[in-house]
Amino acid sequence: MNMNLFSHGDRYLMVDCGITFEQALADSQGRPAIQMPDPSFIAGQRESLDGLIITHAHEDHFGAVPYLWQELKCPVYATPFAAAVLRKKAAWRRAPPPEPLIEVLPGETHTIGSFRVTWLPITHSTPETCALLLETDDCRILHTADWKIDTRPVIGQGWSPSQWKAIGDKGIDAVICDSTNATKPGRSPTEGEVGDALVKLITSLKGRVVVACFASNVARVQSIFRAAHASDRRVGLMGRSLDIMVRSAKNAGVFEPKVPIIEAEHLGYLPEGEVLAVATGTQGEIGAALHRLMMDTHPHMSLGEGDTVIFSSKTIPGNEEAVARLIAGLEDRGVSVIHADKVSATLHASGHPCEDELADLYEVIKPQVCIPVHGEPRHMEANAKVAQRCGVPLTLTGRNGDLFYLSPAPGVRRRWATVGRLQVDEKAKKLERAPS
Length: 436
Prior knowledge:
Layout: E1 4-8, E2 11-15, E3 20-22, E4 33-37, H1 40-43, E5 49-53, H2 59-62, H3 65-72, E6 76-78, H4 80-92, E7 101-103, E8 109-112, E9 115-121, E10 130-136, E11 139-143, H5 161-169, E12 174-178, H6 191-202, E13 209-212, H7 218-231, E14 234-238, H8 240-251, E15 261-262, E16 275-279, H9 289-295, E17 308-311, H10 320-332, E18 336-339, H11 355-365, E19 369-373, H12 377-389, E20 394-395, E21 403-405, E22 411-413, E23 421-425, E24 430-433
Helix pairs in contact: 4-8, 5-11, 6-7, 9-10, 11-12
Keywords: Exonuclease, Hydrolase, Metal-binding, Nuclease, RNA-binding, Zinc
Organism: Candidatus Paraluminiphilus aquimaris
InterPro entries: Metallo-B-lactamas (IPR001279), RibonucZ/Hydroxyglut_hydro (IPR036866), RMMBL (IPR011108), RNase_J_2 (IPR042173), RNase_J_b_CASP (IPR055132)
């Protein structure tokens, strides 16, 4: 649920505007509550807000835009893929798209208010993710967004230490850095490794095959299509969010499938050994495609003896019971289930940096200040310790609402801005203050 504000010379620049899903506040149908940051601090002075940058097309970074843009009324900047997804999401929610919505190519530099902004391509689990280099006359800030070091990406360019060193050689006053995997030693696997494992596994299977993955992981979907090509299978997409992501990626030119996409309603008529479906619902979400397949209520296909479901995903903490129920229900139908959490094969790779990847970044760019973000306090504290071991002179950690002074004298002013959460009331079609 990311929302960041950068300020220079009494002008503001917002980076990301996301939502989160609160399962503990689910409705009677089991749908989790949609929550987002309360933007009242900046909405009350929106004439000072020069723009909103979307770093990538994940719901926790852009999902609140259709709900909040009317309060912000500023230009929105996004790469072509993220812009395409944002337009589709806004249309689905019957909200007007941001105006203007300015498309920016990775590698470009634009002046937005007081900042000169360069979009730096970096690998993550959705296409065209970019870190941001934010420059003023006397300060250079690197905001990493979500990232990892991937030497074998399926989509996008691999990590180039020389390119990042060139950025660091000019001086980085502060880096605002993703902490999600900071507690994990080593490195995350590459998407190329996952693709190889999926091809090997799927070509060995008989019967229908369903691969469940996060909808936004277009690189994973590309690997599944590669496996379909290798095993002479046809691929259909099951799930609205998956369809939005894949078709947006195809239109933006970042997804090049090895075989054509067939309509999901045709899957049930194909010979069993020719079927390969990509499905949403890896976390046991009620009503998602995988849940409907488990309940045998999906309109396009049924699963049974001889069929296989592959979870090319991790189980997010807190979802263990829902995932276990989903797996048990599939197995009760005679379906074989292979979960990335339970096998030695590399069937999933995180999109976030582990300890060694964080260390590589700090040692290459040599920032003066590190501000860990995006994670629980233990993740941010672990990130700070990595930075300290790598020789970063100062690390600053904080909470929502804290003001970080980045230049000329770094520091923190606690609880500087009022913060909170808004929640979507679907029945009343409005936002309300989230329960505390």
